[in-house]
Design goal:
Layout (H helix, E strand, L loop, with lengths): L2 H4 L5 E2 L7 H14 L6 H14 L3 E3 L2 E2 L2 E3 L7 E11 L9 E9 L6 H13 L2 H9 L3 H17 L2 H7 L4 E6 L6 H16 L3 E7 L2 E3 L4 H5 L3 E6 L12 E5 L1 H6 L1 H9 L4 E2 L11 H6 L2 H27 L15 H31 L3 H14 L3 H22 L11 H37 L3 H17 L4 H15 L4 H23 L6 H15 L7 H6 L1 H21 L21 H22 L6
Parallel strand pairs: 1-5, 3-6, 4-6, 7-8, 7-10, 10-11
Antiparallel strand pairs: 2-3, 5-6, 8-9, 11-12
């Protein structure tokens, strides 16, 4: 269906009078109603507001495309309006919106409104076209501009576009921990693909391994490929294929945009060298330092969690129960401490370094990275030494690959089994010998400083760590705080991680409580999600709050940051320590200090978040 079949002079308003998002929506709804396109004006407006409650339709670049598919529409139509001054429409780029297209689709429209939305989005990417609409002097000129642009872009490509979208769209999702983002991104893509009438297969790289793995046949016949990942995934299989590579959060927040691009075969040809061709700066940044670091952290996490909880359980027999010379000694406590601390924890830093190096240089980087990481671990250089070893080994292997390209092709087979490990381990080891001692001194100084902090400084540290856990809920700032907490556990200082876990539980718990206490501020879908947040918060999965933050960031993010910061500060004030790195409520029994005060700190933070969200949010329409 053409846009000009739905847009008429009666549904165009060249000068909108509204000065707010709600008033502009009402004005466009009135325009459609007066043109006889609606059977239930109030019902349609409620459907539009319900869609806005899920996530803003202000797509940025000065454009908003509110839309709804409902039985309140009598005749499918589009209303168009212009605001010279610009309206704060809570757009994705934070800029005012000037051009408004409101799509009204009847209940039996077979997703035609989404196809029209996609077509409109493509047309509106042209800055000259947008400028023409803004300066149009008459309704006839608006219709003419749209009609000409639509013919220019789509009339000749229609047959090609249909042929290109017959194949299946493939996607890979992966987040650093593989707990929440991975599956939320997969669900968002699958749900949106169903709405758009597209076939999609999503491979998840989660904490339990790869599920629904893409086959060679899938990749060969794919119409488009999306890789939404914040850690290393197997990319070599996509050699020569066009891929769209974005952070995993992009798939949660913008699944329609990604699927639309993939269905048209857009993307960058993957060269098979670990580096994509020239593309967006956002993609390049995310495929660099952060992605490599998170690949190391995600692969280290099972050792941290499993080993840390075993160590924590050993403390239940007594803090010194693993020491044969102590009166409280118990053989089982010693066994738990040996397995968890001496072995699982002993592998943390080598695994961290090895998988950072592997993310940079693929499989040849693993050996050099793990050796460098082991040197950091045994030499007392700690996590910082492991991170340095991982990046050092990775880029040394990259350099070796380039340097050894001059060798004859007959020696290609011995490079990965002899030359890369030999020279990679040697050069990495030699450099690490020089940096271990200074790093050890730095770590010892940091531990001594933290141990000597007064109560006021500790409270500030808890406040800071708590805020970091909530500001991006699973992103790089959150992971930086979490990794710092693990380093302190390894150094024998359990207070920082107690604050970190309390703060990480607050965002989903706070939103769950808010959906219970302030039901009229949330729609039905959000209230159902709130029930899940009780479980996610209790088990220390901060990512459970992301859908709420994505839908209403200006109100939700300050609220969760405030609640988490308070929980972190109170935990430090109460003198709580936590020897386990993960587990939520399941590891509360083994904290050092008062269990009741720890629970109180978490609940106070959660209720601060709940009340702030409840007071700040607008009343929901459904």
């Amino acid at each position: 269906m053409k846009i000009t079949d739905l847009l008429t002079k009666e549904t165009i308003s060249l000068r909108l009078k509204g000065s707010s998002k709600d008033s502009v929506i009402r004005e466009l709804v009135d325009t459609l109603d007066q043109a006889g396109k609606l059977s239930d004006k109030k019902g349609y407006e409620e459907a539009i507001l319900a869609r806005e409650a899920q996530s803003t339709t202000g797509i940025g670049e000065g454009i908003a495309i509110p839309h709804a598919k409902t039985k309140a529409v009598k005749t499918p139509a589009i209303a168009f309006g212009v605001s010279d001054a610009g309206i704060d429409y809570e757009s994705l780029d934070g800029q005012p919106s000037h051009l408004f297209f409101m799509i009204a689709a009847s209940e039996g429209a077979n997703n035609a409104h989404l196809e029209t939305l996609s077509r409109l989005s493509s047309m509106l990417m042209d800055t000259d076209f947008r400028a023409g609409l803004l300066s149009a002097a008459s309704k006839e000129e608006v219709i003419s501009l749209i009609d000409n642009k639509e013919k220019e872009l789509f009339e000749e490509e229609e047959v090609v576009e249909i042929a290109e979208t017959k194949g299946m769209i493939l996607a890979v999702t992966a987040c650093p921990t593989g707990i929440a983002h991975t599956y939320m991104a997969a669900d968002a893509l699958k749900q949106k693909a169903k709405e758009l009438g597209l076939n999609v297969k999503v491979e998840t790289n989660g904490s339990s391994g790869v599920k629904n793995e893409l086959t060679k046949e899938d990749i060969e016949s794919a119409a488009g490929i999306i890789v939404a990942a914040d850690k290393h995934v197997d990319m070599e299989r996509f050699h020569g294929k066009k891929i769209i590579q974005v952070p995993v959060a992009q798939a949660i927040r913008k699944p329609e945009e990604l699927l639309t691009k993939a269905s048209r075969g857009e993307g960058t040809t993957y060269s098979g060298t670990g580096k994509a061709e020239s593309g967006s700066e956002e993609k390049k940044g995310r495929s660099g330092f952060y992605k490599h670091l998170m690949n190391g952290v995600s692969n280290m996490l099972p050792f941290v969690v499993g080993g840390g909880i075993l160590i924590a359980i050993s403390f239940m027999f007594g803090i010194e129960a693993a020491n044969p010379d102590d009166p409280s000694y118990h053989w089982f406590a010693e066994a738990l401490s040996t397995i968890g601390g001496g072995n699982a924890f002993g592998l943390m830093i080598p695994v961290l370094a090895g998988f950072i190096a592997m993310s940079i240089a693929d499989r040849p980087g693993l050996a050099a990275g793990m050796v460098g990481g082991l040197m950091a671990s045994t030499g007392g250089a700690g996590f910082l030494g492991g991170i340095i070893a991982g990046f050092l080994a990775g880029y040394i292997i990259i350099g070796l690959k380039k340097a050894l390209n001059v060798l004859p092709s007959s020696l290609e087979g011995i490079k990965p089994v002899l030359l890369y490990p030999l020279f990679g381990i040697f050069f990495t080891g030699m450099i690490m010998l020089q940096v271990v001692a200074p790093l050890k001194a730095f770590n010892e100084g940091l531990t001594t400083w933290l141990g000597g902090l007064g109560s006021g400084n500790l409270i500030f540290l808890g406040l800071l760590l708590g805020a970091m856990m909530a500001i991006d809920m699973g992103g790089p700032i959150n992971k930086a705080a979490f990794t710092f907490g693990i380093a302190m556990i390894d150094a024998g200082n359990y207070a920082p991680h107690a604050a970190i876990m309390a703060a990480g539980m607050v965002p989903p718990l706070g939103l769950a409580i808010s959906t219970t206490l302030f039901k009229n501020k949330f729609n039905k879908q959000e209230r159902e999600a709130g029930k899940t947040c009780y479980v996610m918060g209790a088990t220390f999965i901060t990512e459970g709050a992301i859908p709420f933050a994505a839908a209403d960031p200006m109100r939700v993010i300050p609220s969760v940051v405030a609640g988490s910061a308070i929980a972190g500060a109170l935990t430090m004030l109460f003198g709580i320590g936590l020897p386990a790195p993960h587990g939520g409520v399941f590891v509360i029994p083994i904290i050092t200090g008062s269990i009741l005060l720890y629970i109180l700190a978490i609940l106070i933070g959660a209720f601060v978040t709940a009340v702030m969200v409840g007071l700040l949010k607008k009343k929901a329409t459904v």
